[in-house]
C-alpha cells in the first residue's frame, strides 16, 4: 500500500452490492436477459460517491472468507444461519439470491478493468481488510457500508467516519462520534463492546441474555468498557443489580471470546496494491467488452466520465 495521506474511501463491497441488488429492479438486464441490477446499481453508487466526496484513494474491500474459521471456532453460531453449504476445506458457501451470485464475478471483472483497487485476504472478512487499511492510513478515511459493525472504527481525532446508506444507496448518514453518542450512548471505541453485550441476530451473536442496547449503553457509561464491567462482576461493592450480576456471570464464557470475534482486525497481511483513484481505465479493451456483453451502458459511462474529471 502506498503512503496514503489524502482522503481514502473504503467500500464494504458485498454490503453495497446486496443493497444495489434489492434497490434496483431485476428488470435491469444484459442483452441476453441476465439480470445485472446489482452490477449497474453498484457502478451508479460508486459514481455518486466519487462525485460527492472526491476521494484520492479508493479500495473495494472483499470478503475472501465471509465466515472465518477462527471466528467460528470461538462462537460456533457466528453467521451459521446464513450458511447454504458447509465445506470441509475453504470458506462455507453463503446463502445468496440465485440471480445475485452470477453478478459477483461481473462486478469483480468490471472493477479490475476500470482499475479500482479490489482487495480480499484469505481467512478474513472485508471488515478486517477495512480495519487494516484504516489503521495504516495517514489521512481521513470514509468507510462506506450498510454494516453497523464498522461503527467501531469511527474516530473523530483521525478523521475516520462511516457513510451509512439510510435508504437504498441514495441517502447516506455521515456517522461520526457525535452521531454514535446520540444514538447509542458510546463513541467509536465503545461500539464493539456495546455490540457484543447487545448481541446481533443477523451475525448469530447471542449477546448477554436480557441485556439490550439501552442496558449495554448504561453499563458502559457506568463502568467504562467491557473490562470495567467484568471487574464489576467480581466486585461485590460494584453498582450492579442482582439480575445484572447474575446475567453477566452466566455469560462469562461468551464474554471471554466475544471480543476477538466482534472486533475488526487491524493487522491483516494486505497485498501490495495501488489504491489511487484511477483517472482512465486500466484495460480499455476489457471495459468495452464487458460493457457490450453485460449491457452496462450509462452506468459505466457515467462512472468513467466522473473518474476522468
Q: How is this fold's topology laid out?
A:
Elements: E1 8-12, H1 13-23, H2 37-53, E2 57-61, H3 69-74, E3 83-85, E4 93-94, H4 103-114, E5 117-119, H5 126-136, E6 141-144, E7 160-167, E8 171-175, H6 177-184, H7 188-198, H8 213-223, H9 226-234, H10 242-250, H11 252-262, H12 284-294, H13 297-308
Parallel strand pairs: 1-2, 1-6, 2-5, 6-7
Antiparallel strand pairs: 3-4, 7-8
Helix pairs in contact: 1-2, 2-4, 2-13, 4-12, 7-8, 7-11, 8-9
Strand content: 5-15%
C-alpha end-to-end distance: 24 Å
Order of helices and strands: EHHEHEEHEHEEEHHHHHHHH
Low-confidence stretches: none
Radius of gyration: 21 Å
> Can you tell me the overall shape?
globular
From the helix content, strand content and strand pairing, which structural class follows?
alpha/beta
DSSP strand count: 8
Q: What does the main sheet amount to?
A: 6 strands, mixed
**Neighbour order of strands in the largest sheet:** 5-2-1-6-7-8
Mean pLDDT: 94
What's the helix count? Answer: 13
* Share of helical residues: 40-55%
Quickly list its features.
single chain, 309 residues, alpha/beta, six-stranded mixed sheet, two-stranded antiparallel sheet, 8 strands, globular
Question: What would you note in describing this structure?
Answer:
The protein has 13 helices and eight strands. The protein has helices at residues 13-23, 37-53, 69-74, 103-114, 126-136, 177-184, 188-198, 213-223, 226-234, 242-250, 252-262, 284-294, 297-308, and strands spanning 8-12, 57-61, 83-85, 93-94, 117-119, 141-144, 160-167, 171-175. The chain is globular and about 70 Å long. The two termini are 24 Å apart. The mean pLDDT is 94. Helix 1 packs across helix 2 and helix 2 runs parallel beside helix 4 (103-114). A hairpin with a 7-residue loop joins strand 3 (83-85) and strand 4 (93-94). It has a six-stranded mixed beta sheet. The chain is α/β, with parallel strands linked by helices.
Amino acid at each position: 500500500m502506498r503512503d496514503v495521506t489524502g482522503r481514502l474511501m473504503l467500500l464494504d463491497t458485498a454490503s453495497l452490492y446486496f443493497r444495489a441488488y434489492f434497490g434496483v429492479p431485476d428488470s435491469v438486464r444484459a442483452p441476453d436477459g441476465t439480470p445485472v441490477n446489482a452490477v449497474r446499481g453498484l457502478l451508479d453508487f460508486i459514481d455518486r460517491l466519487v462525485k460527492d466526496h472526491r476521494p484520492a484513494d479508493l479500495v473495494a474491500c472483499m470478503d475472501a472468507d465471509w465466515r472465518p474459521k477462527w471466528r467460528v471456532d470461538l462462537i460456533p453460531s457466528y453467521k451459521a444461519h446464513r450458511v447454504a453449504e458447509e465445506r470441509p476445506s475453504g470458506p462455507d458457501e453463503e446463502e445468496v439470491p440465485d440471480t445475485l451470485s452470477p453478478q459477483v464475478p461481473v462486478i469483480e471483472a468490471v472493477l479490475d478493468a476500470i482499475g479500482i483497487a479490489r482487495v480480499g485476504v484469505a481467512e478474513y472478512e472485508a471488515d478486517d481488510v477495512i480495519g487494516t487499511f484504516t489503521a495504516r492510513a495517514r489521512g481521513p478515511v470514509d468507510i462506506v457500508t450498510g454494516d453497523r459493525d464498522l461503527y467501531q472504527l469511527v474516530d473523530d481525532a483521525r478523521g475516520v467516519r462511516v457513510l451509512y446508506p439510510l435508504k437504498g444507496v441514495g441517502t447516506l448518514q455521515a456517522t461520526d462520534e457525535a452521531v454514535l453518542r446520540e444514538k447509542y450512548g458510546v463513541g467509536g471505541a465503545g461500539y464493539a463492546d456495546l455490540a457484543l453485550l447487545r448481541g446481533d441476530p443477523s451475525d448469530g451473536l447471542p449477546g448477554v441474555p436480557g441485556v439490550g442496547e439501552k442496558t449495554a449503553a448504561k453499563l458502559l457509561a457506568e463502568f467504562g468498557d467491557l473490562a470495567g464491567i467484568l471487574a464489576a462482576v467480581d466486585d461485590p461493592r460494584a453498582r450492579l443489580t442482582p439480575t445484572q450480576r447474575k446475567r453477566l456471570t452466566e455469560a462469562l464464557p461468551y464474554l471471554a471470546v466475544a471480543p476477538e470475534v466482534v472486533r475488526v482486525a487491524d493487522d491483516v497481511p494486505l497485498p501490495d496494491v495501488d489504491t489511487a483513484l484511477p483517472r482512465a481505465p486500466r484495460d480499455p479493451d476489457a471495459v468495452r467488452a464487458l460493457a457490450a456483453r453485460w449491457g452496462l451502458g450509462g452506468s459505466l459511462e457515467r462512472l468513467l466520465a466522473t473518474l476522468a474529471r
